[in-house]
Amino acid sequence: MRTTLTINGATHDVDADPRTTLLDALRNHLGLTGTKKGCDHGQCGACTVIADGRRINSCLTLACMMDGVEITTIEGLGEPGDLLPLQDAFVRHDGYQCGYCTPGQICSATAMLDEVAQGWPSVVTDDLTGDASLTDAEIAERMSGNLCRCAAYPNIVDAIKDAADRTADQREAAE
Amino acid sequence: MTPFDYDRATEVTQAIDAGRIIAGGTNLLDLMKLGVETPDRLTDINRLDLKTIEEHQGGLRIGALVSNSDLAADARVRRDWPVLSRALLSGASGQLRNMATTGGNLLQRTRCYYFQDVSSPCNKRDPGSGCAAMGGATRLHAILGGSEHCIATHPSDMAVAMQALDASVEIEGRDGARTVPLSRFYLLPGDRPDIETELEPGELITAVTLPPPPPGRQTYRKVRDRASYAFALVSVAGIVAMEDGRIAQAALAFGGVAPRPWRDPEVETALAGREPTAETFDAAADILLRDAEGHGGNDFKIPLLRRTLRAVLTDLTTEG
Amino acid sequence: MTIHTRMDDADRRNRLDDMAQGVLSTAMDRPDGPLKVSGRAPYAHEVQPEGMLHGVFVRAPRIGRVVSLDDAAARAMDGVETVVTDDRLLRNPAQGTANEAPVQGPREVFYVGQPIALVVARTFETARAAALSVGVEIADAERAPVAPQDYDSPDKKQSSQGDLDAAMRDAAVTVDRMYTTPAHSSAPMEPHAAIAEWDGDRLTLRGSLQMLKFNRNELADSLGIDPKNLRILSPYVGGGFGSKLGVAPEAVAAAIAAQETGRPVGVALSRQQVFEATMRRSETRQRVRLAADAEGRLTGIGHDAWVSNLPDESYSEPVTQATPFTYRGENRVIGHHVARVSRTCAGSVRAPGEAVGITVFEIAMDELAHAAGIDPVELRRRNIPDRDPTKDIPFSSNMLAQALDAGAAAFGWDDSRPAPGSRREGEWMIGQGMASAVRVNNLAEAKARVTLNPDGTALVETDMTDIGTGSYAILTQIAAEMLGLPPERVEVRLGDTDLPPGSGSGGSVGASSSGSAVFLACQGVRERLAEAMGVAETDLTLKDGQAIADNRSTPLGDVIDGPVEALGHIEPGKTSKAVRQATWGAYFAEVAVNSVTGETRVRRMHGTFAAGRILNAKTARSQCLGGMTFGIGMALTEELMHDARDGHVVNRDLAEYHIPVNADVPQITVELLMEERDPWTNPMQAKGIGELGICGAAAAIVNAIHQATGVRVRDLPATLDKVMAGLED
Fold it and tell me: Is the pTM of this model over 0.90?
């Protein structure tokens, strides 16, 4: 069946079996292999993409359900020579080793920072009615949907904090 | 995944007596890939207008398509129904909560290893084939409410909190709308573990309603094998109101221990009017666990549930 | 030209310290980083040729003999091209460095989940549905039991010196305990995958593999083709941890299917298949006996291990590998016992042997410390031997004492031996624990080619892989340092069997072995430059693209008029037997244990490690972080559960096989003892560090749980039920 997908600002007509997940459409039909398949069951987060501003597991949605949704994949976030601050922070802090979970980590962290900015609480937030802060424990909890077997977790936390601080500094400087 | 026809409902009526309903897809697609679910028609309801949370008779009416994230982050829920917010936030991951819906979460299927493995017998998946969990690995399994045919647990956190909050489920069918209290929504396995809820074939969950915020303090405590991103071994949703140093009323629901979000009115009765002492809590735990039965790998849930219940009650009855 | 070195003698020249570029050992960012963070690094299943077909395995639902395979429904599906049941299909992956095919044949089923056919279709969706539709009839056949029962004790794996029984009898303090560790899965994030494409009789295979020169022979032998007609590409590997050491069923099946269909075929394992059809670490039972005098000095050590594997597998988890030399003790008995089982194949999982052997031994050492009333750090200090006490040979270097002292200081170790259960914060009971880290060090044969161009760029080529370990980074740094080039002027090409055979990634040999080959190749290039300059190589300084000698500084382009190429070739030699080589470290952990539920949270964790010359402080640290996190999993959550009735892996997904998530891991700190140079290991004086971080890490946590609660868990992992059982009601 035909579906029009909007990915990283470009539209793609995909003619695929209705059983095709968004993840498999990206990898097998569109050549966008930056989005990884780690478990295919929503248990690892390697396939995380951003759909209408929210992080989702692309393995657990069908491509045919996604027409009209703005999808951002890792390929839409920055490229070598022109990395976003978060990607650059992952490089400097060694927030990866094998790199396979990394695109999912970065897509997830990008949207996670938006969730914090919107004041969404997490399960480790003491006061549900207060503001969300970006402590190590908050970052770790909010990033727990992205497994990393090389176990770069401490570096991932550092990279996210670093990028968030830089973004905040830039915002302050702009104000 | 066996082939299916895909259609999309844009009106609620199109989703009644339609194909297998898909909303967030986080559980259904998971099971379709394993061959556990094999629908030949899928009806996508994501474009239905069921995504709002509105105030309703002093409580809330939560559209069936409200995502777990939106529900957890809703300012009213965070303020007045924190047990629900905490339960939601303790479940799954940020990504999954963005996809998973209120209606879908209620209908989540068990994580029983054998249910998910199509080469194992399973009365829930294949009625009459037997129960491989009996005599097998049972770390995830029920100590309450099971039968010789099935000891699978319901995996939801959200539904446990809703159970404690006396939520109701709004259902649309070919004969119109009906409302079923959550306390009656889930069925115990008995000899038909494949039939899990009151929902009739062709019906659609359209909303969950919460009554006005209950008095007292609320908490959700989840005990699991990892610090995050793991299903509950035991969870307790607790709401306790104190009056003059005594428990005025308590609402308690339990996850990870039974085929449905477990609630036992006798436990609450035993607490009402009592002083919050260790003896009171132990008496309540005795009632809760009077028919508890372990199956080897889950024997530990019996003392764990007792201890967790006591700690939750201590927490909710101690000013601080 | 080829520069060849056999490590027959210590190399104390420390040549790398004479170099001037100043990039080696620094915390340089990985050159492959920008590709990885932008999703542009291509892994095995990501360069899909036009017209590629998708293959999905049919799994055996029980053990026995395949009587019939009903694939009529599958073949009737639109888009199904073939169902492969070729006799060459592998039973299980090859063991690391096997260099030949493992057991083959899809009719005899030795474990539940064994791949027994490959369904090939035009789309993945069709292949997956078709594979599930295949009906499999399996009859009983004579098989090993599904759980370990009878153990063999091969003579060459038993050893004994002195009289341990007497030592135990005469000791002031003893420990004699049984411990168990469960089976583990490597669970790399990238599932095993392969894409096969034939061009006439030549096969190109893109795979997710760790040791390409062996994999080429294993795959060729499996297929019955000449290795010369086979090229394997593995430029990026999404984690291995041992599970991708040997060629595996997906590669062989993809190659056969591609041959049958005349089209390229890709096969990626499902996560469930990764759990049941790649390697597991064997479960272990271990008996540890310790005899010590009143001061805690060991007089006797006994370490027996019981492990399992499939029939016809020579590998068995080398649990006691480091027991002969870690601590003193003149009376010593080591036993090794293997049961044959019908379970998923056992093979290497990160740090085979020490990962579970040292972990258990270090729990026993903690028990000894408590029994003797001695601070656990001090107990270890008192038992560091002067020489390998079993072989009576010197250590190449023994950094355990330094690691213990530095680690204790960095962590803030409390040596006052607080009573178990004495520190509380609300519901949480707080405790600290520590353990030593030990891992044997090896060197493997490796070759690499280095080409220096007159424009001041260099190319490094070897079939070495980077499985996340940092090969791209450290080989860049070695070449940049030796040739005096900024790192961005060095290109490293890896993961291609058309390139000179490196060591591959496994057993922590990759960096030191392949790195030494690059070092030697660079030495060859330096000799050519020195010759052109008319000076001795040792008088030549290379820096920032300039050749400096005799107070002359000359751009490289003026020294050479064309590319200069050299091949480096390192081989292990007499130093591997003449001295005991190992890497050393110490772990410290602080845990909080919930007094209600028994849940354990690791609050703080620190490791200090010594591994000779550290080649990249950033990637070495990350390797240690990763190892210690594996240790957290081993201590608290990871257990491959086998069904007692048919041996199948019950928790075969990432929801129920609990590898640590971000929230399980604190901001671990790592200290590297940068100054160590081990002359016996290789010309770089470097040692492997990829596995050291797991070798005992779990013990620090289990020991901390004991100090927090008084509960001694001897059956890993220390899940909450086991801890809770020992807590007050």
Answer: yes
